[in-house]
Amino acid sequence: MSETLLEGTAEGGRLRLAAAGAWIARNARSLEAQIDAATQGRGTINEVRIDMARVERLDTFGAWLLERLVRAFSARGCATKVEGLKADYRSLVDDVHVVKLEEPPVRRTIQLADALASIGHSIVSVGGSFGAFVNLLGALSVVIVRILAQPRRLRFTSMVHQLDNVGWRGVPIIILITFLVGCIIAQQGIFHFSKFGADIYVVDMVGILVLRELGVLIVCIMVAGRSGSAYTAELGSMKMREEIDALQTMGFDPIEVLILPRILALIVGVPILTFLGSMAALYGGGLVCWLYGGIEPSIFIERLKEAISLDHFEVGMIKAPFMALVIGVVSCVEGMNVKGSAESLGLQTTASVVESIFLVIVLDGLFAIFFASIGM
Amino acid sequence: MAKARGNGKEVVIAVRGLVVGFGDHIVLDHVDLDVYRGEILGFVGGSGAGKSVLMRTIIGLLPRREGSIRVFGVDLTQASDAERHAIEQRWGVLFQQGALFSSLTVRDNLQFPIREYLELSQRLLDELAVAKLEMVGLDASVLEKFPSELSGGMTKRVALARALALDPEIVFLDEPTSGLDPIGAGEFDELIATLQRTLGLTVFMVTHDLDSLHTVCDRIAVLADHKVIAAGTMDTMLASEHPWLKAYFRGKRSRVGQPGETTRARTT
To answer: Rounded to two decimals, what is the model's pTM?
Structure first.
């Protein structure tokens, strides 16, 4: 039960409020209720005396509530007096006495216009990020031209370090995943094709699908999640801690020092990973064909030679560096867009992964149209 | 150790035989320290001497190897989770960089601890946020700002307001005036002294700022050679013949008002 912290006795136009107990944070909840109750429904009062002599403890919470009490009565034109306050608490009460409250904020309800406005804002921001994408692409070209003129300006060590991170360290997981995907396609193919007695065409399907599309797509999605997000987070936290500003003031171009080595590492690394991934997927497909479909490895290889041509392999490999470029540019743009807060870093990292995967798939579609029209 | 002002006063933090280390490196070697109720204790020591380590060990962010830490008479090393929690509500910490939550506005930063421990009405929460801000010398105009939009001095003030949100009895300040200009630092010292008086706080202040030590600290404790080598008033420090204390308090940057001292410092 909450104790009585404030008790009022009215004598005609006078109100005497006797305060007692501990006016501290722990009691603030019940104290607030008692104070609000005391100020309500006393129509004909013109003088209020608040006796604080029996208050044992007082902190900011209590002092503020006392102030609220005083203000409520003063606002109604009552002469309000606080009595018996301990000397220790005098300065605290004086401190909160001068607090100026803000105008209570107008809480707006969400309306249709707001919903439309938020759609509009999103579209503008999509336009903005497209602009930033093209901007960075242009800036990269300028830096590359500059480096072609002076090849010694290329940060080779940094690039090798990034290549180690995005390429070499990514090999095990990428091989494992593409291997599993190869196994799954082969298994599904055999399961359904065998109904038509067309088991052997599984080899064609696995070969073409893996080399043209799946190998590069799976690798790019993995790289976007694994390395693109890391780029965004790295650049973003460097931005937050003003490291990028520091580089600039020392006369370095952040694009040359930070972004170009990262993007070059991806452009070199992703085709290699695509090659390894495609091989692992074919291996997995072959293994399942043998163990599950009863297609001997020698027959699998023989059939594979007939089914696929160098074109299929080339289509996959040509796409890889372009997709790497898209992932690299998107993740770096998002990294540079990070504002001061931890939340913004999280938002941009999410945006980076989602956008790169989206753009990789769009690009894949464009390539499909392109290769179809040139007959590859 | 403690001078006359310590006698008869309640000890709120008592550290005994505290050993803290990382790997082979011993940072604090059997440290003893008392903090009395209602005082402002300035805690000094060379960079890397372990001042922040001691503070972080007391507030439970770092593990200790040996020794005991008693706060309000409760041994924190033996305390149950519930006892610890109760103690944690009675202290506030101002971190060096402010450590404001960057995804929350100033208003939400201030209300966060209050909301967690007390069930108050939104109206009271909003009023208290303004009251706390005014107590640290800011006003309602910064309520809706995010920490990234605040200047260094404002960040420190908001962080102090957050440390004081639950009206703690002890405040730990980790280099409160670092990164502030001398005027800002002076005002901040003043603010700490004022709040200490109005709220009856006990202040544990890790600092490098000789001016703070001179103007606001009641007592000074010095950490060197992995131990607290001295604790007492400024006069005790100035009178000491310990080489580190001499270098610190009577060095070129100190403001000892003896003309001979200053001249000598200038001519060398």
So the answer is: 0.70
